Amino acid sequence: MPTEPAEIELSEHELREIAGYAAECARRVLSIFEQSLPADTRPRDAIDAARTFSAGGRRTAALRQGGWAAFKAAGEAASPAAADAARAASHAAGAAYLHPRASAHQVKHILGAAAHAARAEELAAGGDPRVAADTLEWARRLAPPAVAAVLGRLPAAPPGGGRVGEFIRHLDAALRA
């Protein structure tokens, strides 16, 4: 019989730092989405809501809805790069809802915004992997101590997920080193 993953410690301070980190990663590529759909504010709204939470705001239904709205915007984006930029924003808002479960899936919630940002920049640069590598290195350096601390309580990032999954695993390994 399968068992539920064990719970990990996860303080509100750590949750806020992780959400702030994810918001900064998503903000880095917001212009890629906005060049595609300049009147669509859903990704910007999701990032702003994550930043508000990271600065001490409450986790509200609007924050969760903002994440889902940014995810929907990704499906309407005019290019794959813009779609990944919107997904980064969606992950930023979703980071505020990280669960205290010792599940490899939670790693995606912590690093998803950074990985989608790297993919958005790679695609915007015509698929240049050096651009993604630079973004991932920037994200590694940007990560506050809470990101590495919480990752250290979780299993390693899971397999799969295509190029974004590859970026998550790369960044996960770098932050655990």
Explain what the structure shows.
- With 177 residues, this protein is mainly α.
- The protein has one domain.
- Helices cover 71% and strands 0% of the residues.
- The protein is built from 8 helices and no strands.
- Helix 2 (42-54) packs parallel to helix 4, helix 3 (61-76) runs antiparallel to helix 4 and helix 5 packs across helix 8.
- The radius of gyration is 15 Å and the shape is globular.
- The protein starts with 11 loop residues before the first helix and ends with a helix.
- The model has no long low-confidence stretch (mean pLDDT 96).
- It holds the Pfam family Imm5_like.
- Keywords: Exonuclease, Hydrolase, Nuclease.
- Residues 10-137 form the Imm-5-like domain.
- One of its GO terms (molecular function) is exonuclease activity.
- It comes from Nannocystis punicea.
Summarize the structure.
The protein has helices spanning 12-36, 42-54, 61-76, 80-94, 105-124, 129-142, 145-151, 162-176. With 177 residues, the protein is mainly alpha-helical.
Oligomer: single chain
What is the mean predicted local confidence, pLDDT? 96
Radius of gyration: 15 Å
Count all strands and give the number: 0
Helicity range of the residues? over 70%
Strand share of the residues? under 5%
Distance between the termini: 34 Å
Task: Pick out the low-confidence regions.
Answer: none
SS-derived structural category: mainly alpha
Listing every helix as H and every strand as E from the N terminus to the C terminus, the arrangement reads HHHHHHHH
Broad shape: globular
